[in-house]
Write a structure and sequence with these properties.
The chain contains 12 helices and 12 strands. By secondary structure, it is an alpha+beta fold. The strands form 3 sheets. The chain has a 5-stranded antiparallel sheet with strand order 3-12-11-8-9, with helices on one face. The radius of gyration is 32 Å and the shape is elongated.
Amino acid sequence: MDKADHSKMNKIFLRTGFIILCAMTVAGIVLSYVRGFEALEKKWAFNIGIGILGMAVCTVLYFSCMLDNREAEQSTYQFISLIFSDAVALFLSECTWLMFGIPDMRWLSLIANVLFYLIGIVLVYQFWLYICSILEMEERAKKRRAVLIKVAFIIAAIMALSNLFVPFYFSIDEQGVYQRGALYPISYIYLLFTTVVILISLIRSSSPRRQKLVVASFIAAPLINQLITAGTFGISTQYAATLLAILLMYTFLFAERGKTLTAQKAELDVANRLQADMLPNIFPAFPDRKEFNIYASMTPAKEVGGDFYDFFFVDRDHLALVIADVSGKGIPAAMFMMMAKSMIQTQVMTGHSPKQVLSEVNRLICANNRENMFVTVWLGILNIKTGVITASNAGHEYPIIKTPDGEFEILKDKHGFVIGGMARMKFTEYEQQMQPGSKLFVYTDGVPEATNSAEELFGLDRTVNALNRVKDSDPMEILKSVEHGVAEFVGGAEQFDDLTMLCLEYKGEEQ
């Protein structure tokens, strides 16, 4: 599954979860109204009221986490699952009290109570997964503890489900009345076992003390509640206490995460400016040269991207043109991009031909490429006097050419392999004659692979159409036309790839 599909699935699951939470909250209010508070004992009504309030708080908290989805990490989704599970537990708790003492609902009450016990086990297990993702623990010890907790989870879940057939923890008599069984205390063994393992993990973790204390509150609040209410039948507030712990964790941990993200954002802004400064970004680029006109742009999918373009004079009569696309996104791709760009320019300035440049850069990158990254490159050198472009293509997109009196058309040049993919690769080159009035458009795959909300690609046909709508305009207007076409097509869908383009208009040698 690629990044776009994964992000789409995450959004679907988050939205579905939010809808379920809203439905449970509404259902809880409706069911309590139908049952009637006047028919319930005060402590039962108290439990139901706490359940409805807790579900409403969970829904708001869940929605708040959804808003943070763009920067979400795995730990964020696990935290969201804690909120969802606690809301389900509160809903089941309300249902069990609403059905208490109703003979006709004995079997429904039995199922609801079994699920109530089961969701508690699931919630404890989810909390273990959550702290594994946020605390720094020795990997081998974490794996051993994970196996123990997983085995204990399976045993505890089987014991809880067994109450459908054998009254281990509780029973529902013919009158629909819930009664604790003789083995009821055993239901706490999984909680106590997991608590001990988590406390050991907290003590031995190298995470900051403040973070440990906040995480420990998730254990402390429910345990304190259990100690207070263990001997009192009819008070069911353990999941309200758990919600208080979740709120405390949200307040502190997400506040800390917010500070970290702010610092990272500042660093990315600096990286973005550094990257922008490395690319030619002053236009007109060569105001004293009337033989050609050139314009280029890059819009990264993240704060920094892996695409790059470049153009520079090799000597007075030769102009080098480069466009490339590094695998991956973000800081790693940007660093790789800077290295590749520098290598290409250095090799071009030595006087090598395009195929020699790509061969040598490929050799240098393959010699030390532990991250197995690669870059596609189109490199052309324009002889300004003759209008001949000598070019080589290392797995990049096809260039698009316009003749003086014609329209933009795709030039299906011969592709070589990507740079960094395989050592000792040899590249070929070709020549393309540019007449005065001819135009060249090169781009990265972010243009044809731009995707709308219906998962349709912008494609090469739409790219060519956008070019031909303004085929007689200057390079700047041509790029703006393509950019506008992509934006109009994509609509509100998220940009998943960098959008990089370069257009050259050849006017011919000065007379």
